[in-house]
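seq:
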Amino acid sequence: MFIMSEDSQRTQGRDAQSSNIMAGKAVAESVRTTLGPRGMDKMLVDSSGEVVITNDGATILDEMDIEHPAAQMIVEVAETQEEEVGDGTTTAGVIAGNLLGEAEDLIEQDVHATTIVEGYHEAARIALEAIDEQVQEAEVDDDVLKQVAESSMTGKGTGGLTAESLAETVVEAVRHVESDDGVARDNVTVHTQIGASSNATELVPGIVVDEDPAHDGMPDEVEDASIAILDVELDVRTGDVDAEYAIDSIDQLNAAIDAEESELQGYAETIAESGADVVFTTDDVADRVAAALAREDVLVFDSLSDSDAKDIASATGARRVGALDDLEEEDFGEADRVRSENFGDDDLAFVEGGAAAEAVTVFVRGGTEHVVDELERAIGDALDVAATALESGEVVPGAGATEIAIADKVRQEAAGIEGRKQLAVDAFADAIDVVPRTLAANTGRDPIDSLVDLRAAHESEGRAGLITSGEEVTIDDPFEYGVVDPADVKREAIESATEAATMIARIDDVIAAE
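struct:
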């Protein structure tokens, strides 16, 4: 009797566990060497020949064409980490892979998967307590935020800029969108433009969109702008049904042309008389309307995307209008300046400042597409972690120090746990050690010797991390060197890695339909 299709494939027991664990470990290993300030880059080439060069864990896993379902769970760990806190994706993936490796060893020792899962969850609880104990007592001020942002970007591609100089831009951007309700991270955007050195990267207090003026005769810049945002087509109205009109004389033709001209002129006059000197519309603007508005020194941008119109409305305080007859002065937004600037083949519109401005843009420059793409990823991560640290007000030491503290506390607590679950708790601590071991290996140090030295320094000093300064690598307190991470990044990495590893370890039957 056939219960499943004859083409279905089924893997059970140890074979299923081994296959899933091997897949998860392989994915984690693929990003392990990118960890830390001395991490290596990966070159990813897709089927169309598109090349991505990065050491960002989330980007690497997203670009990889992964089909194995267990391996996809590790990718989901990185995605969750990226969505929740914006950084620590490589750390989370590597920890998840090593938790699976430790689980595989325990399974071979006849420790049941359920026992491993229980032990891992107990160890994760202890790990979160250890993170709480490592939180810095000092207030998270601008200096600490700069340290958080700089630590996030160290080792990533930042072109000709230093992580330190970019960190100042990041903190200024995050502070701009801070309010009593928290940090509106979505109001900070990163806009990239090829064609100049990365040193030209700047912070724009407003919105940057890929748009050019509707007419060459329009002003390039408007100060103290009154902005109207329309969802209106400024062109001759057409019917929904195809129709033909018979014209019997030149007088009828002239009358039709005059009616059309009057309609278009009416659009221009309505806008000019409204008092708006900058207009953004999501629809088309006829050339004759654009020419008439240019003569009135009104700057117009047409065919905007809905998202760009929404961003400009949010940044300037304008209200979108769906009918030209409804346009009133109270619908206008304000900006200190609206300008159009040409960059090679591209024209960009800058909407800057204003009393109601809520948005800010990091305008990223770079000589090549690869440079600006990696710079965009680095700044994006830095913005995320700075916003996370500012909202939570909690930071912990980086450079592997927090992981050393976690492993130490988990081992101490393991001694009081009875039964085979103790083996799983100990294994959890061994898996966490992968972070400082990998950091050491990526700096050229011996991983085992470094781990021993870190544990000794942690026992005597309370905090110990691998500090990279130029060509030198020393073991010291990361707080003294400004190497810090948001506590939430560490918490999320532990929680998401544990969840993924325990889910995979519990699978003992894989049924695949052909």
